[in-house]
Amino acid sequence: MYKINTERLIDIFLAVITAGTFLVLYMPIVVNSIFSLVPSDRKGIHWEEASFEWYWRLFENESVISAIKATLLIGVIAVVIATFLAIILALYVEWEGAVFRRTIELLVYFPFLMPPIITGLSLLMYFDRIGIPRGEITIIIGHTALVLAVLYRLVLTRLRAMQYTLVEASADLGATRLQTFRYVVWPQLRPAVITGSVLAMAISFDETLITVFLAGDTTTIPLRLWGMMRVGFKPEINALVTIVLLVSFIMAIIAAIRLKSPEGNEE
Q1: Residue 108 belongs to what domain range?
Q2: Per the structure, how many domains does the chain have?
């Protein structure tokens, strides 16, 4: 009886800790979302005046629209380049004659493992030394270096899980290397590439520190949000934060579902 009560207390304690953790993590998001809809002032919260007014005003702001376009453009290009590099590097590392495997993996993972402020500052100093002006190109390079590790790891893991006999059978049937990749290897890699691309896009979408160092005159959503907060907190900020969190949350959920689904793990 005493053992059962002790186990019950442990379960309750763990449940309380878990609930408290989620409350601390997500309550600010809930509060921010509420105040993006409900106006408030010194007199209190006006629940009866709840509306999407600040969202409409946000999308009428040309600087915000420009920042959204720049963020999406940079993210898509960075993910495409990182995907291409991840596939090439993964195929090379798994090749029997590959050399410097560990060095290549260290170079791929290093920008992701380092603090973003160090990565951003290092890239800033490098671009300044070789004379490349800061802007969309430098941001794309920085984001590509950051998200490459995510895509590379997922592609490499899927490649190692693939049955090599499929490649041998393709070669025995007279297929060229390009045909083998197109009809045998790529269908196996596609789920990992899609999942990695969604994760990489989520990382790129709200990356701030690296972007600060490399942006120049280019403004992305995180930088625009930062600039708006410097002049005071307004309902527009709550609306923009809610949109950023919602987009990131949706992409994270999609990636998590694909990672757990049979299609995301094996084909």
Answers
A1: 53-265
A2: 2
